[in-house]
């Protein structure tokens, strides 16, 4: 009896640890996009949704962000990334559509997204080095892709991680404020910190950018106050994709169902042990036979 119980407990522990290898995904746009916001999804399903939406070239500028070494818990504090949360929560009236997946299983290929937009929309690519804190945005009306690669968050204390994430959030917000067009889409990809255990300890950096202007481009820089904050993103309205497969239209497996299965499994094991114990009880048939000895005969007289 111990073997089935131990097997069930080990399986439950394995399923529980699987969620530590996930990371969130965010996408928001000033254009109308049809995208669902499940709490848990595979990276392939999310990538397919991104591809279907960006293939129609809904914006003039596409900001593709990569943030390694994070987990959904890093964004749970409303002060960690206030500008991002303001966009996702709908407080910014310019944002017309959002998508947020709390736990993505696997990694989303940012380079594939960049290649798709380059091919479908004829967009030019601008790579921004977040470590230097400077970037150049041209005045060319041609569609553009801005690729922002942030370094992995330090794996020391929660306070340092939150501080670094806030700096990255401010840097991204400054890029959006300096865009020459109001039609943009931000694809914010992440990867879990379990894959970045060898991250070096880094001191928080203040992003400073020079200011100089020319006829063809603007080389701009900004310091931002870290005191701003906003509410955490509420539940996003799910929009059903009309032509999507059945398992992409609806979410069949939620964390509530998962936790319920984990609780029910040990209870069924306990019930099985109890029923087996009751069923193993044995009583001799002679115990129910009527006694026919001399004393019984005297009582009958």
Strands ordered across the widest β-sheet: 2-4-1-8-3-7-5
**SS field, number of helical segments:** 8
End-to-end CA span? 55 Å
Mean pLDDT: 76
Number of strands: 10
Q: How many strands, what sense, and barrel or not for the largest sheet?
A: 7 strands, mixed
Q: How big is the Rg?
A: 29 Å
User: Class by helix and strand content?
Assistant: alpha/beta
Question: What is the assembly state of the chains in this entry?
Answer: single chain
Query: Which of globular, elongated, flat, extended, rod-shaped describes the shape?
Result: elongated
User: Which stretches of 5+ consecutive residues score pLDDT under 50?
Assistant: 1-18, 198-240
Strand content: 15-25%
How would you describe this structure to a colleague?
The protein has 301 residues and is an alpha/beta fold. It has eight helices and ten strands.
In a few lines, what is going on in this structure?
With 301 residues, this protein is α/β, with parallel strands linked by helices. It has helices spanning 2-18, 43-54, 82-89, 110-121, 158-177, 246-249, 255-279, 294-300, and strands at 22-29, 40-42, 61-70, 97-105, 124-129, 135-138, 144-149, 184-192, 212-213, 217-220. Helix content is 35%, strand content 20%.
Brief descriptors of the model:
disordered N terminus; seven-stranded mixed beta sheet; three-stranded antiparallel beta sheet; 35% helix; alpha/beta; 301 residues
Blueprint (SSEs and pairs):
Elements: H1 2-18, E1 22-29, E2 40-42, H2 43-54, E3 61-70, H3 82-89, E4 97-105, H4 110-121, E5 124-129, E6 135-138, E7 144-149, H5 158-177, E8 184-192, E9 212-213, E10 217-220, H6 246-249, H7 255-279, H8 294-300
Parallel strand pairs: 2-4, 3-7, 3-8, 5-7
Antiparallel strand pairs: 1-4, 1-8, 6-10, 9-10
């Amino acid at each position: 009896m111990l073997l089935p119980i131990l097997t069930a407990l080990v399986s439950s522990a394995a399923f529980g640890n699987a969620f530590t290898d996930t990371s969130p995904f965010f996408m928001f746009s000033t254009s109308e996009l049809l995208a669902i916001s499940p709490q848990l999804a595979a990276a392939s399903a999310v990538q397919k949704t991104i591809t279907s939406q960006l293939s129609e070239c809904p914006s003039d500028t596409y900001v593709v962000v990569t943030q390694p070494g994070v987990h959904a818990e890093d964004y749970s504090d409303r002060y960690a990334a206030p500008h991002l949360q303001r966009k996702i929560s709908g407080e910014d009236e310019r944002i017309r559509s959002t998508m947020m997946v709390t736990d993505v299983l696997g990694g989303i290929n940012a380079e594939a997204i960049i290649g798709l937009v380059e091919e479908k929309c004829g967009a030019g690519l601008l790579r921004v080095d977040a470590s230097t804190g400077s970037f150049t945005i041209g005045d060319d009306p041609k569609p553009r892709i801005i690729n922002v690669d942030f370094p992995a968050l330090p794996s020391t204390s929660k306070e340092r991680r939150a501080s670094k994430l806030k700096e990255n959030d401010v840097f991204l917000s400054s890029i959006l404020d300096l865009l020459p067009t109001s039609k943009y889409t931000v694809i914010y990809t992440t990867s879990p910190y379990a894959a970045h255990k060898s991250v070096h300890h880094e001191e928080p950096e203040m992003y400073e950018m020079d200011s100089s202007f020319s006829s063809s481009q603007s080389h701009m820089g900004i310091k931002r106050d870290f005191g701003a904050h906003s509410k955490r993103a509420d539940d996003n309205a799910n929009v059903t994709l009309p032509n999507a497969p059945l398992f992409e239209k609806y979410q069949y497996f939620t964390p509530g169902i998962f936790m319920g299965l984990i609780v029910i499994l040990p209870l069924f094991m306990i019930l099985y042990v109890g029923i087996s114990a009751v069923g193993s009880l044995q009583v001799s048939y002679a115990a129910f036979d009527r006694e026919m000895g001399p004393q019984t005969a005297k009582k009958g007289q």
